[in-house]
Amino acid sequence: MPANIFIKSLPACHDLRLRDGKRKALPYNLFTEINFSIDTGIEITTSTKKIKITGRELFKLYDFLAAYRVRFIQGNAGTDPEDDGLFVEEISIEELA
User: Fold this and answer.
1) Which of 81, 18, 27 shows the shortest CA–CA distance to 49?
2) Domain residues for 90?
3) Residue whose C-alpha is closest to residue 16's, from 48, 60, 50
4) What is the model's pLDDT at position 14?
5) How many Cα neighbours within 13 Å face the side chain of 43?
6) Dihedral of CA 62/65/70/76: which sign?
7) Maximum CA extent, the chain
């Protein structure tokens, strides 16, 4: 597959769908760092924001984020299936000074 076809299939923005119904789209090219810790979850840093994602089985989500293959992340809306799969409990966005 030619490289330019693969690049065009990548999402340009990452859509955060928050628990309260608000949404925020952030271009992947603004991400300066993506970190994962089994204890604290995923942390995405841009020059102006720090996004924290907490939940269960987040290592799968991290792998796809690192490959720029995630179009959106939906925060918990009170419908936890209570199984062992990927579950996003909360998404928080902190503005950096």
Assistant:
1) 27
2) 3-10+33-95
3) 50
4) 84
5) 9
6) positive
7) 43
| Number of structural domains found in the chain | 1
Interior/surface letters 6-19, b for 16+ CB within 10 angstroms, e for the rest: eeeeeeeebebbbe
Inside any domain, residue 70 = yes
Residue 64 domain flag: yes
Around 93, how many Cα atoms within 13 Å sit in the side-chain half-sphere? 18
Determine phi and psi for 68, rounding to 5 degrees: 55, 45
Q: Please list the ranges in the chain whose pLDDT falls under 50.
A: 1-7
| Residues 6 or more apart in contact with residue 36 via CB below 8 angstroms | 42, 43, 58, 59, 62
Q: Give residue 8's pLDDT.
A: 54
Q: Using CB atoms within 10 Å of the CB of residue 43, give its burial: 0 to 12 exposed, 13 to 18 middle, 19+ buried.
A: middle
Q: How much is the CA Rg of the chain, to the nearest whole Å? A: 14
Distance CA 5, CA 3 (A): 5
